[in-house]
Design a protein that fits this description.
With 134 residues, the protein is α+β, with helices and mostly antiparallel strands. The protein is 31% helix and 41% strand.
């Protein structure tokens, strides 16, 4: 059975992220994407638009000294949505991060990401890793 095109899209975005190729990743985003980062930490909030999302991703890698990496556990997809279960790893200021995230992605008719939001299995660990809200 063939994988849904949106699942392939998501996997390709994760591969691009892993290479540090945020521009290639961003080609999958709608111009008006809304990227939600939950929690109570320095990076939480909503990022609106492709450029703001890319800046957020660069800033997260900068703050973690390039140590952030992700491993997909599973991807489910339909014509409108994708659900991704993945693990995030990183180190920052002597702290290690290893959490599982359940991610939801909504797509437009051209297969571009329009909304992204997730839920960590240990939000407290995420909040502590990134530090206090600004």
């Amino acid at each position: 059975m063939r994988e849904h095109p949106h699942a392939i899209n998501v996997r390709a975005a994760f591969v691009a992220y892993g290479r540090g190729d945020f521009e290639a990743m961003s080609t999958r985003f709608a111009d008006d994407i809304v990227w939600n980062v939950g929690g109570q930490h320095a990076l939480s909030g909503d990022y609106h638009g492709r450029e703001n999302v890319i800046e957020h991703l660069r800033e997260a890698q900068r703050l973690a000294n390039g140590t952030l990496s992700m491993t997909i556990e599973d991807v489910l997809a339909s014509d409108r949505y994708s659900a991704v279960i993945y693990r995030v790893f990183g180190t920052r200021l002597g702290r290690a991060l290893d959490v599982t995230i359940a991610l939801a992605i909504q797509f437009d008719d051209q297969g571009r990401w329009t909304r992204r939001f997730g839920l960590a299995n240990d939000q407290r660990a995420v909040d502590e890793f990134w530090g206090q809200p600004v």
